[in-house]
TrEMBL record:
It holds the Pfam family LigD_Prim-Pol. Residues 147-394 form the DNA ligase D polymerase domain. This is Bifunctional non-homologous end joining protein LigD. It comes from Evansella caseinilytica. InterPro entries: LigD_pol_dom (IPR014145), NA-bd_OB-fold (IPR012340), NHEJ_ligase_prk (IPR014143), NHEJ_LigD (IPR052171). It comes from the Bacteria.
Length: 417
């Protein structure tokens, strides 16, 4: 997994692209027609064209725009979106189409379908069965996010989220009417799923296996807003990673999660164990410990997780607990190590959450885990921005074998014996 330049870039390479746009106006001096798409639920102009139009097509288009112009500013006429055209272009620079050329009018398409998300999907190796329906459907109220924006996020984040989804039995949390509607967990692949969706049968459940971009975007169109994965891969009964869930009683107690995480980090460093923090997307933090292909069973991993949790609770009994009953925890943070077991799941890195604010289960660097850390800083917009700036904090996650973990578990088992 790469750090920088690892999310999808938009039309930066020189090649043959095409897409459907709506016309936004006409420049009298250059005799070019401006076009745009819906992006972030607003009209985004992407340049202008004239090449490819027949003389009679150009004349008819000018007449329509003259008649329907809603604004006449100098030498430019503007119209409301409505006329859709299919264009070819060679790349996009500074958010403008390069060498746009008219292909045909698209009277079969409503202008609201000319979205940034559909433009992305239409120019990638995505199965034909994948397209965005109801792109303007509201999903989150604050910040206001519609379906097309969510699909665009999945497209951009795909190179980073897919390695954590591949070859795992997926559980999704779907919100067909946005997060303020009813949500439900779904494990079984629906009967209407297209043939390219791969599944794995376990316990009479046909789990979806999200190995590729097409599956990810199809699930996004089904409004799967949360992706939950088990701790092991298909065909391997042993865990691929260990995850501690640091769960404070409320977001107001988030500083407890920071303190617990730093206590863990200090302990891990003593034993040369590599660990990776992430915002849960809810109210706490989760600490991932990768193991690559270490021959470690869930039972053996439990020796490690229970020891770490007990050590920290014993050190700070008034702030942390392993008590599973909420009413007995008081205002203490719950160190959940029990969740790390076969059949259990954890929120996938870079998955969104079905909560107001469009939060993301965002990977962090340990340098970011300080008193200044706030869980509400990470949503689908800020996460993409920070990746462009600093890269992915989990960039070497799958390279870590953590050989010292096996040594530590042997010592723990010897002490217990």
């Amino acid at each position: 997994m790469k750090t920088r330049a690892s999310i999808h870039r938009h039309f930066s390479k020189q090649k043959n692209y095409q897409g459907v746009f709506f016309i936004t106006g006409f420049h009298k001096k250059s005799e070019r027609f401006s076009v745009g798409t819906l992006k972030n639920n607003a009209v985004a102009e992407l340049g202008s064209f004239s090449e490819g139009l027949k003389k009679e097509e150009k004349s008819a288009l000018e007449q329509i725009i003259n008649k329907k112009a809603v604004s006449r500013s100098g030498l430019k006429l503007q119209i409301a979106p409505g006329i859709c055209v299919e264009l070819a272009f060679t790349k996009m620079e500074k958010r403008l189409l390069t060498n746009p050329r008219f292909l045909r009018f698209r009277t079969d398409i409503d202008w609201t379908e000319c979205t940034w998300g559909n433009l992305l999907i239409g120019n990638d190796s995505v199965k034909q069965e994948v397209h965005i329906t109801h792109p303007d459907k509201p999903l989150w109220k604050e910040p206001p996010i519609v379906k097309d924006q969510y699909i665009s996020y999945l497209y951009e984040i795909a190179p980073l989220i897919l390695p954590f989804l591949q070859q795992r039995m997926l559980t999704v949390l779907r919100y067909p009417h946005g997060i303020h509607g009813e949500g439900f967990y779904q494990k079984n692949c629906p009967a209407y799923a297209p043939e390219f969706i791969k599944t794995y049968l376990a316990d009479d459940i046909h789990y979806i296996v999200c190995n590729d971009l097409s599956t990810l975007l199809w699930l996004g169109n089904q409004l799967a807003l949360e992706f939950h994965v088990p701790f092991h891969h298909i065909g391997n009964a042993n865990p691929y990673e260990i995850v501690f869930d640091l769960d404070p009683p409320s977001q107001a107690y988030f500083p407890l999660a920071v303190k617990a995480a730093l206590e863990m980090k200090q302990l891990f460093d003593k034993f040369s164990i590599q660990s990776y923090p992430k915002i849960s997307g809810n109210k706490g933090l989760q600490i991932h410990v990768p193991m690559a292909d270490a021959p470690l069973t869930f039972e053996e991993a439990r020796h490690f997780t229970s020891f770490i949790a007990a050590y920290i609770v014993e050190k700070h009994p008034h702030e942390f607990t392993v008590e599973r009953m909420k009413k007995k925890r008081g205002n203490r943070l719950y160190i959940d190590y029990v969740q790390h077991w076969r059949g259990k799941t954890i929120i996938c890195p870079y998955s969104t959450r079905g909560r107001e604010g469009a939060p993301v289960a965002a990977p962090l660097s340990w340098e970011e885990v300080t008193a200044a850390l706030r869980p509400d800083q990470y949503n689908i917009f800020t996460v993409l921005e920070r990746i462009n700036k600093i890269g992915c904090p989990f960039h070497d996650y799958f390279e870590q074998k953590n050989e010292h973990l096996l040594e530590m578990i042997k010592k723990i088992k010897a002490v217990k014996a």
